[in-house]
Design goal:
heterotrimer; A alpha+beta; B alpha+beta; C alpha/beta; A: alpha+beta; N-terminal domain of TfIIb; 8 strands; 23% strand; C: alpha/beta; Dimethylsulfoxide Reductase, domain 2; 22 helices; globular
Chain lengths: 199, 316, 811
Amino acid sequence: MNMELSRRGFLKAAGVGVAGTTMGAFGFADLEAAQAAAIRPFKLTNTMETRNTCPYCSVACGIIMYSKGDLRKGETAEIVHIEGDADHPTNRGTLCPKGAALKDFVKAETRLKYPMVRKPGSDKFERVSWDQALDRIARLMKDDRDANFIASNAAGVPVNRWTTVGFLAASATTNETAWLTYKVVRSTGIVAFDNQARV
Amino acid sequence: MEPSPHTATSNPPVAATNTNLTERDLVRRSASTVPPPARQLEPVAKLIDVSKCIGCKACQSACIEWNDTHPAIETNTGVYDNPHDLTPDMFTLMRFTEWDNPQTGNLEWLIRKDGCMHCEDPGCLKACPAPGAIVQYSNGIVDFVHENCIGCGYCIKGCPFNIPRISKVDHTAYKCTLCSDRVAVGQGPACAKACPTHAITFGTKDDMKKLADSRIEDLKSRGYDNAGLYDPPGVGGTHVMYVLHHNDQPEIYANLPKDPKVSPVVNAWKGMAKYLGFAALGLAAAAGVLHSALVSPNRVTREDEEKAEDLVKEKT
Amino acid sequence: MTNSWTDIRNTDLVVIMGGNAAEAHPCGFKWVTEAKANRGAKLIVVDPRYTRSASVSDFYAPIRQGTDIAFLLGVINYCIQNDKVQWEYVKAFTNAAYVVKEGFAYNDGLFTGYDENKRDYDRSTWEYEIGPDGFAVVDDTLQNPRCVWNLLKAHVATYTPEMVERICGTPKDKFLKVAQMISECSSPTKTMTSMYALGWTQHSKGSQNIRSMAMLQLILGNIGVRGGGMNALRGHSNIQGLTDIGLMSNLIPGYLNIPVERETDFATYMSSRAFKPLRPNQTSYWQNYKKFFVSFQKVMWGDAATAQNEFAYQYLPKLDVPAYDVLRTFEMMHQGKVNGYFCQGFNPLLAFPNRQKITESLSRLKWLVTMDPLDTETSRFWENHGEYNNVNPSSIQTEVIQLPSTCFAEDEGALVNSGRWLQWHWAGGSPPGEAKHDTWIMAQIYRRLRALYEKEGGAFPDPILNLTWNYQDLEEPSPEELAKELNGYAVEALTDPADPAKVVLEKGKQLVNFSVMRDDGTTACACWIYSGCFNEAGNNMARRDNTDPDDTGAYPNWSFSWPLNRRILYNRASADLQGNPWDPTRKLIAWDGTKWSGYDVPDIAPTAKPDEVGPFIMNQEGVSRLFARGLMREGPFPVHYEPFEAPIANVIAPKIRGNPVARIFQSDVAQFATSEEFPYAATSYRLTEHFHYWTKHNRVNAMLQPEFFVEISEQLAAEKGIAHGSWVRVWSKRGEVKAKAVVTKRIKPLICDGKSVHVVGIPLHWGFTGQARKGWGPNSLTPFVGDANIETPEYKAFLVNIEPTTAPVSV
């Protein structure tokens, strides 16, 4: 879907600025002509493009992620480069020093890869399976909710609050994640519910 | 009411594409000659409008990512400049200067993006004793060819802007390529595309001069009477130009040279190399001529020179 | 933002105050440079520091942090004194003419009704006089001494240029220059935009900072017009979305409220939400509240929410306090009243004030679950990192479960930008290791918890067991399915009210937008303001047509802008009482005698007559409020209050410390310092090279700004013997940090009330995980107090001391 994107409209709207005339003026050699020795082969050739949005500030710059491998074909995809999307009305291809280095956020050494548990009093994390981690979380929640749920106040009026567990939500997740998080948290009666907008 | 020109009017191609920079487009090749180019490419230029620059370092970030370099994580030394200087892994650098304007009494934070100026008359290329280590295309790009570089450091001596840096890893010289690989497929340099405020733009040199004129007019209307274009004639003009609010004092922008020139010694050496040929002269002789005469920063260690000599001997 | 990033190109004057757009939003700031380059716009920056924004400004004025209200009320005073008012706009579109009740007064920094013990007001006098017709009394001649305009005029008279200089430290001539430049925008053909961010919100009176500028913009006629507006530059990529969807203790998506205890049933809850118009013919759009609320209950609990059970009203928790915001929650945690805590993509160890208290609080949890793509400090709060995190793991009994989540590149869905655009994005990379989508993680937690309730029973399982969960893959709902819930759908076939035989929308179809929502349970919608984002026309958030007819900057077919794809809020106010644009060159919409139309979706009923229906349709008045009635806790007009830790006493009300109604927990009071103990005025901020505590994990950004530093003036450095680039210790009453000293001309001492005030600037991007050098955040130093209305912590103004020191010791 994201590949069927028209940039014609924007180019028309953007008019032909200086750079518009420039590209034609650069001159192009015949297909057969060999690129000069000094020049590195163009590294995006034969990569996959995917449209995304910079996850940092709320300018929400359009970006293009270039990958080896195509997720849409069920392949493993490795992002090899990220650049601003020239079709995007707000950033028009530009990116700030954070957006321009997004690839190194995706590939940061300190990206988390496995669920971990740190036991009480321990000085280290230990790897666990997702099932172990999730079952443990569900059990901890259930036990605490059953023990501490406040069904009604002193006047006998239903209040249905759970105050002994809190949930702090992200600010860079999608609306869809936010909504699913809202549903789950609200259904439990958690009231200590907040997000990054607070700070 | 369309905003000023953009470098990025289209996204990079991902399909195999024609190249527009070929060996036939070379106009100069260090320590050797090239046949007259088959055609004249339209000269290009990067325009850096210092008055629009917010010093965000997106240019540095985009440069690292595009060129796959790995600058070291240093420390804070009391300034915003990081790394502290150009390195073989950092081809461009924001240099920050806090300047009290004596006329207005106001503080100005002058932020200049430093890097290769792509001189029309390139001192680095002229000083270079290694055949084909530095080349110039008819569009004005000056590029380093690492396979041919011997790491002697004379390009640094020959450069009036103190730009190239020698890698301790492969002992060859590095600097901005003007993203020759991008220009070859019709894209502007990575820094220009990234620049959030379009302080960096890229296009034909003629167009960039016209854009500069409109910027200078705007700056003059805001009281910058000495606003102007930095395109120094001493090096034949440059393919990286600045719009400066105080063009009468380029030196206040982190020592941008007021009237940069290719050293006469380099010009003389260039002449010798051209006529005598590199092999005949030998590196030691070249070193003697250049070393004694040039006062520009010398980052070449004795070891580097010996290594270079060895390399040359092997080649010859 | 009332407007959008791309609209900033239409402005004549940009005022950056309470923010630093060039630094924090560089690509949005491009539209400032474009406005400057293409229409000769001017840029004013008012900030304690000469910032990156200031470096490209036309005029810079210094100000002491925490004194913005005095400055802005000073500008309002200047405009009134010099008749720089967009009179037609003010008279028609604000409540200037409304008459306030007898009994309302302001004296010595306080309004009528203050109760010192409760730190709160009885706000009953902060209201309009209501006439015999049931509507608010107005005096269009503005002669009544009790009309809002005259009360405002008297209120701001205190803030003379001399008083502004005394409080703010802004030299009088610089203040006057700024005031003069701003006042020119009272012309109907000149517009100013306000770009602000955390520099205004992170104060104990943050809401009133923003209100002060909003009032000024109304007086200048700059709300609802192209190139104008109040533009909050939100911090994170989807902080707008998280706010819209109401992930807060007291919110329901779309700015509806969670009930409080006294609202014991649905009828009581609705009784205070009738939103009857306060003037004839006004829209008062919140009259539709019940439709939005019932549709929310239906999307949550489907068939279990019926008219008979008040649409499952009792499934919602009832609050006993205004909100369980993070400050309250960490105070409770500190008291041992919280057992478990989830941090989804959040790093409170570095993000919340008084780190010592945060560490102690987390240590009192039985368990902590973190979900993050990165190895955060919070997930390792128990780990010893020498001086950087000096804890003893063996004494911390908290079980910590760290879950790896995907990042943007591996994720699909929509983010809402600051200009309210919902932009869809696609996944392009495979997650590392076993990292999982947040949607999968949340679904798994829910599914397993639900299974336990199904099997074992337990406390009030109904809202959990009956939660709507009709996704194709029960283990992981798809982004498209969730987006469709956000848009809303018909629960039953919707029929035409005029012709019950006629079906206007079949059962199960997506709602076209919120205008078709019902309060009888036949429609379901998660977030009414988003309705229209994913209707039967498809996923409108994924639209990528970037044409912009007549270059207005609207880009109407690019993604989807809430509400109703409207690009500029209050755009009806861009036209006069006849419906003609104030500025024909900046037309947005116009009245053609029968309807509104133009470049944007009209922010009013298309047939609402321009001389009858006011443009501020969400307000019961139909006009905007220069006088806020009882809606702000401090008072209907802003007042200058000092930060809780201030270098001088409050000049206009010396007995008042901080904001008189800000909530203070007893345990924090002893940790507020005076200027005798801590003489320097500190502030915290972000740098352009980094994003919060994320990019220090990124080698490139870690290189661009590698090490924690503080910024001080040359004068303070000389006084303290601090050398450029040397180590300093900075400490407050709550903790200490060690940093490199950046000695700069960009910070200069200010003279406030005759006293020299030194500013210490503390950026916030370092911690003990990631690639950058280890360091601290300013939250080791900041006070545990928030804004009186919304509890945003006071990070921008506090007191510290500073001295030379040696390098810190790691482990």
